[in-house]
Amino acid sequence: MSQSAPWDTHPEPLAVDSAPLPEYGSGSLADLLPTLAAGMAVPGMAAAITELTPADRNCVFLIDGLGWEQLKAHPDEAPFLTSLLGTSRGGTGRALTAGYPATTATSLASVGTGLPPGAHGLPGYTARNPETGELMNQLRWRPWTSPRTWQPYPTVFQLADRAGVHVAQVTSPTFENTPLTQVALSGGTFHGRLSGEDRMDLAARQLAAGDRSLVYTYYAELDGAGHRYGVESDTWRGQLMHVDRLVQRLAEQLPPRTALYVTADHGMVDILFDEEHRIDFDEDWELRAGVALLGGEGRARHVYAVPGAENDVLTCWREVLGEQFWVASRDEAIAAGWFGPHIDERVYARIGDVVAAARDDVLIIASEREPKESAMVGNHGSMTPAEQLVPLLEVRS
């Protein structure tokens, strides 16, 4: 049998079921708060992350953009965090998975509700609102829609508060009344503090304020530095050094019977600025053909087709991108479990007719529709380890 010439070969597109799935139900961000709440005897909560030991007081410090792989690659900038790597995930030294897509709005909703994206219904940076046909930015909540209609489930914080646990959020004052806070992180009392040091000090005091306490605190600036300058930049490294000092400051103030968990919403990858690594949807007639709306973000796209063009769009995106992206129809992505074990009916049409998740170091940018996003150095969203894996570092008092 003669061997085909190289130019006659047609590599198969990446199989949908070859994407590395988040560990929904045992080791994802959605499993963290239910596990902690179960340990504090909150009704209806189950300890999904079996490696964790219950504590009377629990603090979750979420550092936006602090991926597991990025942390391990920078021991000199983060000596305290590095010393805690072996404590991750109950002393196993393993990471958690963020969930798909690995992006802030989706991950914060997963953390706060204890539900995977297919249930809480924030399936991406931007997603189509089936009621209006418009793209909705789920981080900035534009255009406006009713938060409780969009995400109707109670948060774990609310359930813990109702069960008598002392619950507090300690974060930037700018987040107090945002819709994302309402649907993902509300419950108990909100305490706005501008500086990271003030947040650490107040978080420690809030932990001590109850016999059973659940405190959430957050730091965003590391993520901003990564987007703007990249995770190999001096600016990002400087932010990591600051974060390391903040975590140590909080750890040294923990009241008795406390477990501090340091985690993140996603990791990040730097993408080169050239045509090979940044495919511009706005300048690619093949990718635009039959597409009504482009949602998601560069490494985790929701593609909404003109009615009747769904199969053609899927075929085209697979042919053009299938060696670098996992490209699936909506039903294929759902069946493969990308968004969790089940999809709520209200969430189904929010997911793209075609879903594209990057495997390689490549983006689908949209230079005209998304100029700011298209100019970012650091990016995230997909299911690669650099984006999916997040720490669950632990300090106990």
Structural description of this entry:
This protein is α/β, with parallel strands linked by helices and about 400 residues long. About 30% of the residues lie in helices and about 20% in strands. It contains 18 helices and 18 strands. The chain has helices at about 30-40, 70, 80-85, 90, 105-115, 115-120, 145-150, 155-160, 180-185, 195-210, 220-230, 235-250, 285-290, 310-320, 330-335, 345-350, 370-375, 385-390, and strands at about 55-65, 95, 125-130, 135, 165-170, 190, 215-220, 260-265, 270, 280, 290-295, 300-305, 325-330, 355-360, 365, 380, 390, 395. It is globular. Residues about 1-10 have low confidence and may be disordered.
Mean pLDDT across residues: 96
Can you tell me the residue ranges where pLDDT is under 50 for at least 5 consecutive residues?
A: 1-8
Strand content: 15-25%
Shape: globular
Return the structural class: alpha/beta
Q: How many E strands?
A: 18
Main sheet specs: 6 strands, mixed
Radius of gyration over all CA atoms, rounded: 21 Å
Termini separation comes to 69 Å
Strand order in space, largest sheet:
6-5-7-1-8-18
Number of helices: 18
Helix content: 25-40%
